[in-house]
Each structure stands twice: as C-alpha cells, then as structure tokens.
Write a sequence for this structure.
C-alpha cells in the first residue's frame, strides 16, 4: 500500500459498531483503514519480510479494542456487510500473518475465532443456497439475497473470509454443529453485546437458525421467507464451496460490471429527463464518459428501485460506490492470496469489464453525476465521496495498487 495511505489509516482508531434494531452502523474510514493495515502486514509477511513492529502494534491494538466487546460487528447480514465484509477479510489477514496472530494471547485468539464464526453464521443464514430468508438476524426485512450488489457482496466476503480463516471443512463443521443457546452464552461471556442484541431481538431468529423452516411461522412465508437454517447445514454459495475464491469472485464481478457503458440514459416515465455528468466541456455540452459504448458499466448505473414509485428507474453514483467498495475489498483479498486467475477468453473479457466499469465510475465521480433514484434526482459529486466518512482513499488505493494493474486490457488505456 502507498505510504501516504498507510499514514492515513493510522489516523483512525479501531473500527467500531453499535447495535440498533433495524439499523446498520458503519464507520467506514475506521474499518477500511484497519483493512488496509491488515492487508499491508499480510503482504509483507507473504513476500518474506517480517512486518515492522509499528505495523504489528497498529493492527493488534485495534483488534484488541474490538475484542474487548461492546463495539464488535452486529453480525446480522445484508447492508451490515458494507463494513463487516472488510472486517472479516481483516481477520483472515490477521489469522494468516504469523507475526500478528502470534502477538495475540490464547484468550484473544479464542475471541477472534468466536467473532469470525458469528460473521459466518450470519452469512450462512442470509446467503447459503439452502436458505431464502427475506430478513436479517435482527428481524429487519430490508433484504433479499438476490438484491443489488451493495446488499449482498459484503456478506459473501464474510463467508469467503471465514472459509480461509478456519479452513472450509472446519467452518462447515462449526456450522453443522452450531447450537444457538451455547453460542449466545459464549458471546455473552466474551462481552459481545452487539451480536447478542442483534440475534435475540426477534425470538424467531433462534428457531430459524436451529431448525430452519419459515421465519415467524408458516403464515409469514411470503414476507419473511424460509430455508434450512444454519444448524445441520453446510454452506455453499451459488453452488460453490466457499474456498473457491476465484470462481465466486467471477460471479460477483460478472454481475457488478454488467452493462454497456452509457452516460446519458433516459429516465423511465420521466419525459425529457436523462442522466448526465455535471461538468460541461469547452463546447458547452455535458461531458461524456470516454468509456461509453464499452462493456463493463457498473450495475447500479442502470437498474431499478426496490421501492415502488412513478418511475422504477435508478442510476446512482453513490449506490455504485456502495457496491464497488465491497467488490474491491474482495478483489484485493483474492489477489493478495494468489488466487487471481483470469484464464482464457472469458477471463480476459471479465478483466476488460472490471477495468471499464471501474474507470467509468471514477470518471463520473471526478466530474459529478446527475442520477435518479427512488423517484427523484440524485446529484452526487466527488466531494460527497471524499469528504464524508466513506473510506474513499482506502478503496481507491485497493483499486490502484492491487486490481488496476492486473485488469487494464492491453492497449485499451486512454491516451493521456
């Protein structure tokens, strides 16, 4: 990671969360900064160097703050994955960086295991192929496992990271033998009040985790969904074992970067309205993305709303970022582990799509974007991403340092 980005990460204290029913707490600068430090330590050790003492201390001190309890991830699935996915990858880096892992006490390692398992339970409940619950572990119904990437990718990451952390066989053993009452008692003893509050907020959660079936009973099937639960059930995602990093990431990326790029898109049911870049060129017309007409534009630049209104159309720079930040955290982890494997024509096409989609997004962010979501215009400028606590400098560094060098199609970069 660039030195300036590491310095920026050090300005933020440990990541933290707070449980509030039907709400998601995110402090993305803290979480993404922590991820960046953990990634750096992992890469240094993997490349044959022992991480510097200051880096080991920075990672372990922040992790100890989370392990103290009361500020840990709520582990409920869905939009919580914005920060929980990156944190799960951070735990994976730590577990596989001996200089950091060995600096923790046996008690701290045990609490880290408990926390990672809780993240995996939430991922299994909300995403496993045998589950189709339309609720999170706190009972919130703002979720569907086929919804847009920002709802899904964070907890796919949690499942993948847990399989790396424990090993996929050990992880599945932990899920098959999961016992709600025993595990919640362990969480209480560890002081993990956010998870306990989340998992016990709605009594139906215990029944669903342990026995599957319909959440809140048969008469609620249409609203809450049903599944096999977690106890007794191994975890697969889209037919894949969770240790198939590259195959899972390919599916995520194929969805994320899935449109032919367009800058000016007519707004459905709104005659005369169209999306556009806010900045005008020398000719007095709004700028057009230089990637128009090329395949790979991000999913959320041309999709629909979950909320019904007089126009179902959605094209949103901020929604794109919320998916892209999760995608970049997973992409960087897959590459850091040495599992990046874009073989053949399909792989080359995917690399081109990732490049086009990411650079098209960054161009629109640089010059501002007039979008449309939930029935109204949504104007987003670069300042909305950079000046708010959304982890922008860290995500940009993951793209520029880890992913862009391996996806730029030969000869396709724009002339400067």
């Amino acid at each position: 990671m660039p030195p300036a980005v590491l310095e920026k990460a050090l300005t933020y204290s440990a990541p933290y969360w707070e449980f509030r029913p039907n709400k998601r707490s995110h402090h993305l600068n803290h979480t993404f900064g922590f991820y960046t430090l953990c990634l750096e330590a992992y890469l240094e050790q993997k490349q044959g160097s022992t991480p510097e003492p200051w880096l080991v201390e920075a990672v372990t001190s922040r992790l100890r703050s989370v392990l103290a309890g009361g500020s840990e991830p709520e582990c409920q699935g869905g939009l919580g994955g914005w920060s929980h996915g990156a944190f799960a990858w951070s735990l994976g880096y730590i577990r596989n960086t001996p200089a950091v892992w060995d600096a923790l006490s046996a008690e701290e390692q045990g609490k880290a295991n408990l926390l990672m398992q809780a993240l995996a339970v939430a991922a299994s409940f909300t995403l496993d192929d045998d589950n189709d619950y339309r609720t999170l572990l706190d009972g919130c119904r703002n979720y569907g496992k086929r919804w847009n990437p920002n709802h899904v990718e964070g907890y796919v990451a949690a499942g993948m990271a847990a399989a790396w952390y424990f090993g996929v066989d050990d992880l599945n053993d932990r899920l098959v033998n999961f016992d709600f009452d025993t595990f919640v008692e362990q969480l209480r003893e560890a002081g993990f009040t956010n998870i306990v509050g989340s998992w016990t907020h709605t009594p139906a959660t215990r029944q669903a985790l342990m026995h599957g079936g319909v959440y809140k009973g048969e008469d609620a099937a249409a609203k809450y969904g049903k599944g096999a639960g977690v106890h007794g059930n191994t975890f697969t995602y889209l037919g894949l074992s969770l240790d198939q990093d590259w195959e899972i990431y390919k599916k995520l990326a194929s969805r994320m970067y899935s449109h032919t790029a367009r800058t000016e898109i007519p707004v459905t049911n709104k005659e005369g309205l169209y999306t556009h870049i806010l900045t005008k060129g020398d000719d007095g017309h709004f700028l057009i993305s230089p990637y128009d007409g090329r395949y790979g534009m991000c999913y959320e630049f041309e999709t629909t709303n979950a909320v019904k209104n007089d126009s179902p159309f959605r094209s949103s720079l901020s929604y794109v970022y919320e998916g892209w930040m999760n995608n970049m955290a997973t992409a960087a982890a897959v590459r850091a582990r040495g599992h990046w494997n874009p073989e053949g024509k399909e792989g080359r096409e995917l690399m081109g799509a990732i490049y086009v989609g990411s650079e098209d997004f960054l161009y629109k962010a640089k010059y501002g974007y007039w979008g449309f979501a939930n029935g109204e215009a949504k104007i987003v400028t670069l300042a909305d991403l950079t000046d708010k606590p959304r982890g922008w400098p860290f995500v940009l560094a993951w793209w520029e340092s880890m992913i862009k060098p391996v996806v730029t199609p030969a000869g396709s970069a724009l002339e400067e």
